[in-house]
Amino acid sequence: MLTSHRSRTRLLAAAGLLLAAASPAWALDYRSTARPALLYDAPSTAANKVAAAGGDVPFEVVIDTENWVKVRDYTGRLAWIEKAALGGPHSVIVKAESATVRKQPRADADAVFRAARGVLLVVTAPPDASGWLPVKHADGLAGWIAAGDVWGR
Q1: Distance of alpha carbon 93 from its chain centroid, rounded?
Q2: Which of 28, 32, 96, 139 is the S-S candidate for 88 at Cβ 3.0 to 4.6 Å?
Q3: How many angstroms separate the CA atoms of 71 and 67, rounded?
């Protein structure tokens, strides 16, 4: 019986270590551009250029190397970007057809403005516990947006 208990304990400990090691892979990492940048189909400036991104554009990090980062944009496209181009403020893109930015983090709060799909917003603080993000538009308008209406958090 003692051997059986030790075996189960070791098995549980090993499973816990595997889960702990795998958990960072589940966490998504988003970074925004610090300046306009080119996107390439391989990690080299000699590779084919596939797109250009403006400043403050969020990307999901897929692979992070010493000088290059493989990223996914909000449409799902994969590309490589020079690591030095990243590091802007945390931004999100409106993914809903239209989203309302509100004065308080509540669906019934007064509207500050409406943002169309594709609008960039800078996240100004951590989200609240109920799933609202404090954001600011480039024009200076600020408020709260439902996290489900944006991509890049």
Answers
A1: 10
A2: 32
A3: 13
pLDDT above 80 (res 17)? no
Q: Which two tokens stand for residue 26?
A: 């589940």
22: number of Cβ within 10 Å = 9
Q: Specify which residues 133 forms β-bridges with.
A: 145
Q: How many CB atoms lie within 10 A of CB 92?
A: 24
User: pLDDT for 66-95, tens place per residue?
Assistant: 999 999 999 999 999 999 999 999 999 999
Per-residue b or e along 1-21, where b marks 16 or more CB atoms closer than 10 Å to that residue's CB: eeeeeeeeeeeeeeeeeeeee
- Mean pLDDT, residues 118-145 taken together: 96
pLDDT of residue 90: 95
Count of positions (residues) in the chain: 153
Q: Which residue segments constitute the domains of the chain, with CATH numbers given?
A: 30-85 (2.30.30.40), 91-151 (2.30.30.40)
Adjacency order of strands within the sheet including 98-102: 111-116, 98-102, 142-146, 132-136, 120-123, 91-94, 150-151
